[in-house]
């Protein structure tokens, strides 16, 4: 599910190369929210991170564990999550507020494909 992060590369048809950083993140206990909230950090109440619940996510049944870390794999599936109060996130989003919870692992140089689909 890299499409959210890919938007921050600001790639275009003329500049189609971008960099994506793949990190190992210790989420701890997540505060789960149905929508974006700029004050989410203040809502942690003893939790270690925020998880925005999205409509689509990798199927947990396809995940593998490598060296104690859960790695989501496989195609996206419908999570059944809907926000009854309005907009629903397209994909799960995770936010950690303490940089010590993040271990940068891989810097990927990617070429974006801007072919028109219709």
From TrEMBL:
EC id: 2.4.2.-
A biological process term (GO) from this entry: protein poly-ADP-ribosylation
Stretches assigned to the PARP catalytic domain: 1-118
GO cellular component: nucleolus
Coiled coil: none
Enzyme class: transferase
Keyword field contains Repressor: no
PROSITE patterns tied to this protein: PARP_CATALYTIC
Reactions the enzyme catalyzes: NAD(+) + (ADP-D-ribosyl)n-acceptor = nicotinamide + (ADP-D-ribosyl)n+1-acceptor + H(+)
Keywords: Glycosyltransferase, NAD, Transferase
InterPro entries: ARTD/PARP, Poly(ADP-ribose)pol_cat_dom
An annotated Gene Ontology molecular function: NAD+ poly-ADP-ribosyltransferase activity
Family: Belongs to the ARTD/PARP family.
Stated name of the protein: Poly [ADP-ribose] polymerase
